Amino acid sequence: MRKLFLPFCILLLMSGCKKSELDVATSSPSASADKAVAVADYEMEASKSPQVAPSNTISEKLLPDENVSAQPSVTPKKIDTIAKKVIKNGNMKLQVGDIKKAQSQVANILKKNNAYIQTEQFQNTDVDDNLDLVIRVPHKNFDALINSFSDGVGSVLSKNISSDDVTEEYTDVSIKLANKKIYLEKYRDMLRSASTTKDMIEIQEKIRELEDEIDVAEGRLRFIDDRVNYSTLNLSLYKEKVRSSATSKIGFGSRFGDSVTEGWNSFVSFLLGIISFWPFLLLIPILIYLWRKWRAGRAK
To answer: Residue ranges of the domains in the chain?
Structure first.
């Protein structure tokens, strides 16, 4: 009986171990596989979606170089080809026989060329008369205006014409202005969606700066357009009052009178020049007195 009981117990133990191994084999792989899949999915999601700390302030979002994802996406506006921009300026000095007659001729020439006088200054001296005019004329009529003054108004004493190509500057300012306007609209959109007072204040400051820069750029473009569309000419009309006997074509009597007048004017100028030295003339008697006193003391 003992011999049969012992083998029976061994068989029961062996069957129990096999059953437990079978349960482990059937349950463990499934759980391990599910766990491995979950870990793999987590790692994959982690690699695809890295955690990025959000910017603390709107200022960081507005700075274009620090956080590209936070700044407003701006597509530079394409600028059409800009026509050549050339500013023309000129200076002329004419010697005329009569200022009033020359002024009337200038008015007729300006009317024909659609020009106008911006400033006018007249100066009357003992020697000559001068009429200085700043004339604005359409760019296309500038050369014709210069030729009209050279031909029929008087003798040209001096003439200087200059041209300044500002196409590059005009294009650069136009491109920057267009981009600033796009940025301004983006910041206004950000202002409408701002959630905190701090963000609103910082965005409003950016908007104010952009508006100031836009005003300056637009003013510069208007100035360039004005100078390009209307050229500037500084015209000086000169009339000499005192005729020189060497160049005068009038009779002997008039030339003699001119000579007397010139001599008298020279004498008056000399006399006035001496009088202007009166403080130094007062020193002469003092110097003579001191010299005599010194000489008398030396003789003793």
So the answer is: 73-241, 252-299
